[in-house]
Design brief:
The chain is built from 6 helices and 3 strands, in the order H-H-H-H-E-H-H-E-E. The chain is α+β, with helices and mostly antiparallel strands. The chain has 2 domains: 44 residues, no CATH class; 83 residues, Arc Repressor Mutant, subunit A (Orthogonal Bundle). Helix 1 packs across helix 2 and helix 4 packs across helix 5.
Length: 172
């Protein structure tokens, strides 16, 4: 087998690294001799066929093994999808959605005719948010994105949401 020039260079640098790691040529040579002996021993074991930790004679068990592996794969997929539900980004999204819907339940009236200014809704949400949920405000862009999932938005110079209104202060 003929090596390419970069393979020679790679082997050369690996040898230098090994000598440096072993802190000398003698220790590196001793290390390599042990590695060679171990590889020769593994090779003999493999030639005899003793290398397998478990030997299975499948015979007519292929259909059973396929069914078993199918069950394992299904369980892995279920677990992966369940763990995905608790991913940090999803948890944060749900938390924010729950907060938005809590505000809507407490401070808004839905399924009403008409439109309400997006800015008016955002300012009311921000006041409610600072009073109870957090000191840091949610941006108008993020609020707009969250509201857009549940309400139709109209733009005619002023952004408005359809079928939602604010409760009067004495109604909540």
């Amino acid at each position: 087998m003929k090596l390419k020039w970069w393979e020679y260079v790679s082997v050369f640098f690996e040898a230098i690294a090994l000598i440096y790691k072993c802190r000398g040529l003698a220790k590196a040579q001793s290390y390599l001799n042990k590695e060679i002996a171990m590889l020769q021993q593994r090779s003999l074991i493999m030639e005899r066929g003793d290398d397998a930790m478990i030997t299975i004679d499948g015979g007519n068990m292929q259909s059973h093994l396929e069914a078993f592996m199918g069950e394992i794969l299904e369980k892995i997929q279920i677990r992966a999808s369940e763990e995905g539900k608790d991913a940090p980004a999803i948890v944060e999204y749900r938390k924010q959605e729950d907060i938005l819907h809590e505000w809507i339940r407490k401070c808004c009236i839905v399924d009403v005719p008409g439109e309400t200014s997006a800015l008016e809704l955002y300012e009311a949400f921000s006041r409610w948010w600072i009073m109870g949920a957090s000191i840091k405000k949610i941006s108008l862009k993020k609020f707009d994105m969250m509201m857009g999932r549940d309400f139709k938005k109209k733009t005619n110079g002023i952004h408005r949401y359809c079928r939602i209104g604010l409760l009067k202060a004495d109604e909540d």
